Amino acid sequence: MTATDLKGAVPxxxxxxxxxxxxxxxxxxxxxxxxxxxxxxxxxxxxSGAVVGAVLAYIxxxxxxxxxxxxxxxxxxxxxxxxxxxxxxxxxxxxxxAVMGWCAYWLHTGRYRASVPPYATAGQVLWHNTFKLIxxxxxxxLIAPIVIIIPLSFNAxxxxxxxxxxxxxxxxxxxxxxxxxxxxxxDWLRPLKNSVIIAxxxxxxxxxxxxxxxxxLSQSHVPFRRAIMAILISPMIVPLIISATxxxxxxxxxxxxxxxxxxxxxxxxxxxxxxxxxxxxxxxxVIITVTATLVGFDNSLTRAAANMGATxxxxxxxxxxxxxxxxxxSGALFAFITSFDxxxxxxxxxxxxxxxxxxxxxxxxxEQISPTILAVATILVVLSILLLTTVELLRRRSERLRGMSPx
Amino acid sequence: MTDTAQSGPVLAADxxxxxxxLNRALRRQKMRAMLLIAPLLFFIxxxxxxxxxxxxxxxxxNQIVSDTLPRTTQxxxxxxxxxxxxxxxxxxAALTKDLMVAVxxxxxxxxxSRLNYETTGVSSLxxxxxxxxxxxGEGYTDQFVDLDPKWEDPVFWADLMADPAASALPMTQxxxxxxxxxxxxxxxxxxREEQPWHTVYLSLYQDxxxxxxxxxxPAEVATAQTAAVTFQTEDLIAAFxxxxxxxxxxxxxxxxxxxxxxxxxxxFLNAVxxxxxxxxxxxxxxxxxxxxxxxxxxxxxxxxxxxxCILLGYPVAWLLANxxxxxxxxLMILVLLxxxxxxxxxxSAWKVLLQQQGVINEIVVWLGLVAxxxxxxxxxxxxxxxxxxxxxxxxxxxxxxxxxxxxxPPSYLRAAxxxxxxxxxxxxxxxxxxxxxxxxxxxxxxxxxxxGYYITPEIVGGxxxxxxxxxxxxxxxxxxxxxxxxxxxxxLLVVVLLLYWAYDRIVGIDNVKLGG
Lengths: 407, 516
Fold this sequence. Notes:
The complex is a heterodimer.
Chain A: H1 15-38, H2 42-63, H3 66-108, H4 122-152, H5 164-167, H6 177-184, H7 186-217, H8 225-237, H9 240-262, H10 266-295, H11 300-307, H12 312-341, H13 344-349, H14 357-366, H15 372-404
Helix pairs in contact in A: 1-2, 1-3, 2-3, 4-15, 6-7, 6-15, 7-10, 7-12, 7-14, 8-10, 9-10, 10-12, 11-12, 12-15
Chain B: H1 2-7, H2 18-58, H3 63-68, H4 70-76, H5 89-104, H6 108-116, H7 122-132, H8 138-147, H9 154-162, H10 170-187, H11 198-209, H12 219-228, H13 236-243, H14 250-258, H15 266-271, E1 274-277, E2 280-283, H16 291-322, H17 325-340, H18 343-354, H19 359-366, H20 382-405, H21 410-418, H22 423-451, H23 455-460, H24 468-477, H25 482-506
Antiparallel strand pairs in B: 1-2
């Protein structure tokens, strides 16, 4: 593929009046940063960056085909970066080369106008692309904090920032010791165990009760539907701190009652308290997702099943349940993550024996801040990616199923 | 037969009138729906609604004063604080009796800390007095025993008090009953084996000097009544004043009197920086007013967060709604991943990024934008809270905005432009008004979530960036002023419920969607 193949409907922009100055400006920006960082001086960086940008743009778009050019730009800039800034300079150079090479071709081939109508004015094109840049920055703001803790969690030092060794890509700067600490330290393993005990039980309670109620709520004649819905959704609306305050008083009395009347051990009653509290918090999510699935449910299917002699139980398990299963599962995942992620209520309702993973993280962040938190955070990010994928797949499946059912 | 069928009501297959039959079917359907909902409703009521209700009740409940000092609060009813003098001896006598019971039941320190929320110093006053109260009235005991050693005999006392005629000595009976109850419940002792407390003798002296009719009681009582006139009286007021001068202070007594009723609005007044006085309420001293400031700060910061969420969320939602489906779905992952990531993970990420030695500061110093000794203070202040919470709540703004924008046909904008509108006019006059419901839904959601936030402000907020919820948590776990925590919580709850009501009116709670 050559540069000319990528031309759009628009004429090739002026090379010296358009593509070169803009790439030079981009180069100047990178040069400014590099000059500041290496101590070579801001002005020198600015100037040499601009020159490099202009020359690069000229060579690329006039002499080199697209694919080769992109790689060549990256390679050249990496070498330049290495010459000025050592190992870390390579990384910066790679980045600058990729961006500048892309920019030169993007401008020269006219692809920058690809998503605006041909009659758009220069100002409109500029605004359109600036808008995209702004959106990109906002999305960067959303995702960067989560991504940045992943490399930090491999830090060999007990620091919360990139050490010079890490920046120099020195293998000695990286280690798995925080992960090792997480999987061997009892301070982290016990909370992990508690979280793994509490969340599934809370999920089972919220899902079983929530699904039944959602089916009831989706019937056509339900007295006080709005009021009931408001009560069932309330755990999601009431600020957690208020729920926690209320539960703190009530559940301590309930714990005493369980211990004195049923002779339960303190730890068992503690688990029961936290599980019940978390189940209550997870219910709104189950109700919302399952009712949303039931909106598309065709009631004539249950009537048809009944007509063919199925008992209500058979109808439920063989006809209704498979159809609403995606909604139930994503509700369950929401309930699970609510419980797995919950700190405030467990902080007030639970005792030290029920310390969960988020609680331990909270204590860790507030008191003796340990880098193991970053290892835990990375593991949790991986977990949330898995959950997100599952929910997304389920949602698509549900939409497919709904598309098939009539009505 | 045919005639009746035609003139009468229409019948169903089983011969009942169709209307009744349909009604029955409807009733059955309703019953079935309710039966399905009932378990969950019951569960939520027990595990969630009742606890919240109980907390609200706690914000006005104040039985501890009248429960612990029943006799004193009753006697104080007639006392008028405006005279500027501490109450008379009978009130002190009642206080002695109440405190004696409270000390044995170990309740006086709890009462002390309760009243200490209102007037500082009461807690130590009660603790100090509690240590010495069991000596009070000893003079009367000695004088009764000197008169007749029988007064020392527990069995004699038990029999005397069991006598129906003992109702002539009401105070003694009351004090003895309190003594008997307490030693049975607290120590498991038998009143027939223990000599009564001095307070019982004190009450007996009070009864006898009040001229009780002891004619039908054993002769010892009558003898004692005659002798009591000559008894040397014990100055209770001086005894209390000896323990602590504060017992002579009108303030102390006023506090007890003001908080005597079983229910109080004191916690709520406290929660809005006012304090209870005998004639209504007044502002607290300037240096003690913190809650209104905190409420205002919570509101302002929540508004700032909501506003920054609109600012950042609107362009992204617009982009998502106008991109082709495949690209939009890819970008949507960038929005949903933070939404699904643990709150603690995101908060710790910000703690790491914003620190003095954190990644952001390192980068700006490396780039030479700020000097090394002049690093940006991004954490432990309001800035930190606003940045971190905007990031955390942004998906809650983008998702409702996106679902509203998805329904706006792109042809409207094109139509406006073809009619000669500029880009800005087309957006502002055509597109924006249609996206307002999305802004409303997202804003209320973000605002509701942010005014009740606790975890993030606690970790990145320092002292200047905390919300009212952090104060509630402080009162629950550190200062143990639960009534005040409940009152603050109740105010916050009312605000949230009002917003929720508005949300329900604007969006409808059934339309809440999760994850796009």
